[in-house]
């Protein structure tokens, strides 16, 4: 009799627990939402003036779309917020099929930020996503008279717009910059080298970089074809300057080689397609002349750049390089390790991190690592 009573009691307790759990689940479905579901931030897609892109040759518009994430407490509060600026690339040098990459990236980032902020795993931050695609496919976030001053667009136009339209911490202690992969990562590194006092922290994600082999590095040599560029130049050889311009602008399309040349070896005073090409020797081989150095100096010439911009890099509070340990783009790992060693010998403070994430999963890496990196360093700053 005693055993039956005990079993009955246990069954009653279990039944009650099941009922409680069922009540919890049904309560949520009937409107009792989680904190993250209730406290959602807002996304604003805005087209901003881009005076830095004015007067470019290929007709890139001087207005560009960016996306801004405002945390849940922004609308009802008065405090200023730190800002992370995120320069995005798709990882394959092609525009995303579903719209502006800034919007595509933000659609993935915002729900994750809602959850992590609600769970107190990261602090409240404003996030700004920026795309760097142009009519040739890639701007490389570089300044060029042919494609426009994309570096200035990021560091001047975007920052000034955000600071003047939102409650932000308006100094480098409250600003972080992340970029990736490939041209996005390169862009973040390039901006870190070329500027001082704008950002306090820079996270360089899966950057496209040359090691000491320079442009002769096989994988990148295949991507940037001097032979192809030579053929493109030949198309306009017999046309007048104006005829060449009209034909080029009417047929312009995404091409990685021309995009790279337009960014790093521009020829604004010449004829379409407005790029320079190294000379050839008697055997028909390209020679390592001054123009070759321009191509090599785009993603490369890191040793000289570090010597020149060491002070700017050391003015940062934090600088981090990230590469994929098993990434099929092996040049990313090789370039990062080479750069890190060159920085170390020059006493340039930085971190270098290997991850199992592939460069194409850039949003995943930002979610897993970058947001926490910036939250730990920016939140609480005034």
Can you put this structure into words, describing what you see?
By secondary structure, this protein is α/β, with parallel strands linked by helices. The chain folds into two domains: 2-32; 39-213 and 297-378, Rossmann fold, CATH 3.40.50. It has helices spanning 2-29, 35-38, 101-118, 150-165, 183-194, 218-223, 226-234, 241-251, 256-264, 290-299, 302-314, 330-345, 362-378, and strands spanning 42-49, 63-70, 83-88, 126-131, 143-144, 148-149, 175-180, 201-205, 318-324, 351-355. The strands form two sheets. The protein has an eight-stranded mixed beta sheet with strand order 1-2-4-3-7-8-9-10, with helices on both faces. Helix 3 links the parallel strand 3 and strand 4. Helix 3 packs across helix 13 (362-378). It is globular and about 70 Å long. The chain starts with a helix and ends with a helix.
Number of helices: 13
pLDDT < 50 runs, ≥5 residues: 1-29, 91-98
Broad shape: globular
Strand order of the largest sheet: 1-2-4-3-7-8-9-10
Based on CA atoms alone, the radius of gyration comes out at 25 Å
* Biggest beta sheet summary: 8 strands, mixed
Strand content: 5-15%
Helix content: 40-55%
CATH topology of the largest domain, what is it called?
Rossmann fold
Count of discrete structural domains: 2
Query: Helix and strand string, N-terminal first?
Result: HHEEEHEEEHEHEHHHHHHEHEH
- How far apart lie the N and C ends? 70 Å
Q: Give the structural class.
A: alpha/beta
Structure keywords:
alpha/beta; 14% strand; 382 residues; 10 strands; two-stranded antiparallel sheet; globular; 2 domains
């Amino acid at each position: 009799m005693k055993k039956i009573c005990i079993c009955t009691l246990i069954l009653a307790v279990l039944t009650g627990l099941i009922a409680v759990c069922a009540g919890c689940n049904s309560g949520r479905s009937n409107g009792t939402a989680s904190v993250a579901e209730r406290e959602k931030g807002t996304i604003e897609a805005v087209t901003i003036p881009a005076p830095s892109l004015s007067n470019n040759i290929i007709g890139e518009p001087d207005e560009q779309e960016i996306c801004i994430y405002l945390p849940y407490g922004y609308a009802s509060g008065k405090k200023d917020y730190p800002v992370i600026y995120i320069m995005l690339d798709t990882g394959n040098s092609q525009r995303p099929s579903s719209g502006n990459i800034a919007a595509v990236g933000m659609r993935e980032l915002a729900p994750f930020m809602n959850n992590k902020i609600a769970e107190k795993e990261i602090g409240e931050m404003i996030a700004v996503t920026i795309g760097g695609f142009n009519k040739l496919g890639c701007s490389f976030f570089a300044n060029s008279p042919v494609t426009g001053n994309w570096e200035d667009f990021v560091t001047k136009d975007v920052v000034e717009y955000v600071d003047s339209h939102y409650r932000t911490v308006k100094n480098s202690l409250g600003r972080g910059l992340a970029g990736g992969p490939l041209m996005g990562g390169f862009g973040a590194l390039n901006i870190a080298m070329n500027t001082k006092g704008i950002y306090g922290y820079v996270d360089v994600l899966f950057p496209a970089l040359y090691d000491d082999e320079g442009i002769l590095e096989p994988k990148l040599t295949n991507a940037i074809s001097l032979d192809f560029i030579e053929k493109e130049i030949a198309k306009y050889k017999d046309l007048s300057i104006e005829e060449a311009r009209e034909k080029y602008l009417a047929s312009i399309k995404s091409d990685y080689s021309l995009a790279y040349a337009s960014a790093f070896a521009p020829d604004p005073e010449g004829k379409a397609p407005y790029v320079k090409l190294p000379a050839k020797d008697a055997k028909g081989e390209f020679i390592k002349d001054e123009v070759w150095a321009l191509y090599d100096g785009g993603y490369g010439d890191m040793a000289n750049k570090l010597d020149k911009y060491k002070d700017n890099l050391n003015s940062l509070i934090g600088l981090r390089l990230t590469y994929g340990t098993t990434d099929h783009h092996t040049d990313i790992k090789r370039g990062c390790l080479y750069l890190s060693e060159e920085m170390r010998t020059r006493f340039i403070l930085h971190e270098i991190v290997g991850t199992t994430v592939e460069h194409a999963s850039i949003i995943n890496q930002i979610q897993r690592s970058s947001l926490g990196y910036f939250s730990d360093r920016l939140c609480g700053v005034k």
